[in-house]
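=== Structure Prediction Worksheet ===
Name of assembly: unnamed complex
Input type: mixed (protein and possibly other molecules)
Chain count: two
Listed entries:
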Amino acid sequence: MSTEAITDDLTTRTENSPRELLVRAFFFACAVLSIVTTIAIALLLVTEASKFFTSTAHLFGVEGETATIGEFLTGTKWRPNFSPHRFGVLPLVAATLMVVIGSAAIAIPLGTATAIYLSEYATPRARSFLKPALEILAGVPTVIYGFFALVYITPALSVIFPNISFFNMLSASIVVGIMITPMVASVSEDAMSAVPDELRQAGYGMGATKYDVSVGVVLPAATSGIVSSYILGLSRAIGETMAVTLAAGASAKLLLPVNPAAYLEGAMPMTAAMINLLTGDITGGGLAYRSLFAVGLALFVITLIMNIISDVVAQHYREEYE
Amino acid sequence: MSADTETRSVPEFGQVSRTAGVVFRYLLLAATLVGIVALGVLLVYVAMDAFQPFTADVEWHLTYLGVAVLPTLVAGAYLYWRDGPGLGVAFEFFGLGSVSLLFAGGIAALFIDLVPSLVWLGYLIALVIPILLSVALTRIDHVVPFWVRFLAVGVVGVLSLIGVPGYYHSVPEMVVQIPIVPMDWVILAVTLGGPMAAVVGSLFAGRRGRSAGLRAGAVALVGVLAVAFAGPFLGIDRVPAAVIGAIALVPTGGHVAWTLLERPRERAGLLVPVLLVAGIAAGTVVVSAAGFAGPDTWLTWEFVTGLGSGIGDPQAAGIYPAIVGTMMLMIVVALISFPVGVGAAIYLEEYAGESRLKRIIDVNISNLAGVPSVVYGLLGLGAFVRYGGLTPGTVIVGGATLTLLILPIVIISAREAIRSVPDTQRQASYGMGATRWQTVRKVVLPRAFPGILTGTILALSRAIGETAPLIVIGAPQIFDLPTTLSDRVGAMPLQLYVWATTFADPAFYTTVLAAGVVVLLVVMLAMNSVAIVLRNRYQTRGES
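=== Predicted Assembly ===
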C-alpha cells in the first residue's frame, strides 16, 4: 500500500462511509426482525382469534358460525370437530393445570436439589460430568419423551396402579417434570452462584456447617432467582406439546386437578388440543382453524405473563448483589 | 468420632451434628442423578427394543465379546492404569471417526438423491466467480469507489447464480450443458476432498514446513480419489465412497497421521481403535464361517435407507425420507438463522449502545425465547401459508418457521460469545484507527466464532427435535422423499409421531418406533457432543 493510500484512508470519514452504513443497516435489520416477529405473532393471534368470537367476528366481516367469549371461557365441553360444536376451554385448561402441578411436584424438588448440589457441593470434576448430562436431559426431543411415557412409563405405572388408563396424566406429568428439571436447576444454580462469597464466609465464621450455610444462607439469599426459575420452568410445562399429546391422550374430559385419582385418567391439555385440531385439513380458515388461534392466544398470553413475572422477580435479585 | 469428644470438652459451644449434613448431601446427589439415571434406563430399554440383542445366538455374543470387546477393554484399562495421555487419543479417534462418518453419510445421501454432482459443481463455480471478483476489486481498493465495487459484485453474483431468465443463462445452467464433464465421483472427490486436503495440508504446513504441508494435502486428495475409485470393490458406489473419503476418512486419517508424527507419547492410544476394528473384522469372519445367527435387529440398513411409510407392514418401514427431510430443513434453518442471528447479536453488542430501542429488543428477545413452539407453528401457518400464499408443509415454510423459533436462542448465545471478547482488544483496534466494521470483522468475530458456532449447533439440535411447529404448518403425515425446496416435507420427529399415533398399532411401539427413536437420538447426541467438545476446548484455551 502506498503512503498516498494510507493518507487517503485516514482522511476519509470512515464512520459514515457507504460500507459502514450498509453493514450497520444490515445488522439493524437483523435485530429488528425479532420485534417484527413478536408483532406478527401478537397481531396474527389477536385477529384470527377475534374472527372466532361472535362479538368481534363482524368487525372482520366473518360470516357463519362463531362462539361467544363467555362460552369459550366458561364452557365445560370441548368438541370442535363434530356437530354440535362446543368450544369450552375449561377442560383443556384443567388438563394443562394438571400437567403443571404434576411436573412441578417433580421438577421443583429435583431441580432445587440439583442446583444446590451443583453450586455448593459438587467438585469441578463432578460438575464437568453432571452439567453436560443435564444438558442432554434437556435436549432430548420432546416427542421422544412422549414415546417413553407411552411405551415404558405407563406400563411400569400400571404395576402400581392397576386401573390406570392407557393415556394418563401421571405419565405425562412425570416426563414433563423430568424435561423441565434441567432448566429449573440451571437457572436456580445461576442465582445461587451469584450469592456473594462473603455471605458464605460469614456463615462459616459463625461456626455454621456446610448444610447450615447452604440451607440457611444461600437458599434465602437466592430466593428470587429460584422462584423465577420455577415460574420459567412451569411456563415451559404449559407450552410443552408433543410429550403431552402422545402421553395424555385426546379425550377432552373435565378433570379436577386437585383430585389425585384424576391423574390416572387421560385428558387433553391446551397444546394437545391444538395438535388434535390439525388432524383435518383446516387451512381453509373454518371455525376449527380459528379456534386453534383462540387457544393459541390463551397459551401465548399465559406463558408471556409468566415469563414477564419471572423476569421481574429475577431482576430483583440482580439488583441486590451487583 | 473424634469430633464428638472435642465438642464435648467445650460444652458451651453446643454439639455439632454432622449427620443431617451428610444425609442432606447424599440426598442432593441422589436428586441430581434421578433424572439422568431415569433417562439412562429408558435409553437402555429403547436400545433393547431397537436392536433385540437377545434374539442372537449366545455364540454370536461370545464371539464378538472374545475377539473385539474384551481386547479393547483390556487395552483401554491398561492405558488408563498407566495413566498416560494415550486414552484421550483413543476417545478422540472414536469421536471424530463416528461423528464424521455420520455427517458423511448424510451428505452422501444429499448427493445421491437430491443434488446431481454437476449441479453442485455449477453452483460452486457460480459462487466462486463473485467471490474472486470481490477479492480482486479489494486489491485495487482505492481506485474504485465502494458503491461501484458493491454493485459490480452484486450484479455479477446475481448473474452467475440466477441469470436473467430468457436472456442470459446462469452459470449452473451453463455448466449442466457442457458436453464433456468428469465423472460424478471425480467431481465430488475434488470439490469436497480438495478443501479438506487443504485444511489438513495447512495444519501440517504450520508445524513441519511448506513442503510437508503440500505433501500431506496431496496424499489426502489422492487418497480420496483412490477410495472413491476403490469403492465398488468394497460394495459402496463411487459417489458415496468419494463423500465418505472426503468428509470422514481425511479428518480421521489426518488425526492418526498427526498423532503418529507429532504426539509420540500418545501413540499407544491408537492401539485401542486398531484392536476394536480388527476385532470386529475378525468376529465377522468367524461368525459367518461358523454360522452363528446375529440379533434380529430392527435398526437395519434397510430401515435407515428404506422409503416405506410402514402402513400395514412394519417390516417395510423406512426412515430415509424423514432423514432427508430433516437435513433439508436444517440446511435452510442454518443458512438463514446463522447470518441473521449473528447480525442481530453484533448490532446489540457492538452498535446499539445504551438506547431505549436496545432495551426493548433485549426484553423482546428473552420473551420470544419463552414462547411455546406450537405458537411459532401458528405464526408460520398464518404468516407464510394463509397470508403468504405458500403451500403448507413445504421445506421452505418449515425451515422459515423453525428459523424464527431458534433465532432467539442463536442471538442470545452469540451475544454471550461476543460479550466474552475482552474490551481491551476492541479499544486497541479502535486506537489504531479501525472502523467499527473492521473491528467487528477482524477482532471480535474471530475471537467469538467458536462460541457462536457452539450456540448455533445447540440451537440446530433443538430445531431437529421440534415436531409441533411442523404439524401446525401442515407437514404431511405420509410423505415421499423431498427433492426441492417447495416439496412437502416430513422430518424425523414427525415420522416418530406419525408412527406412534396414525397407525396406533402396538406392533409399532417396541419395534419400528424404537429404531426410529435411536436414529433421532444418535443424530441429536452427535450434534450435542460436537457442541460440548467445541465449547470445552474453547473455554480451556480462553483461560490458559
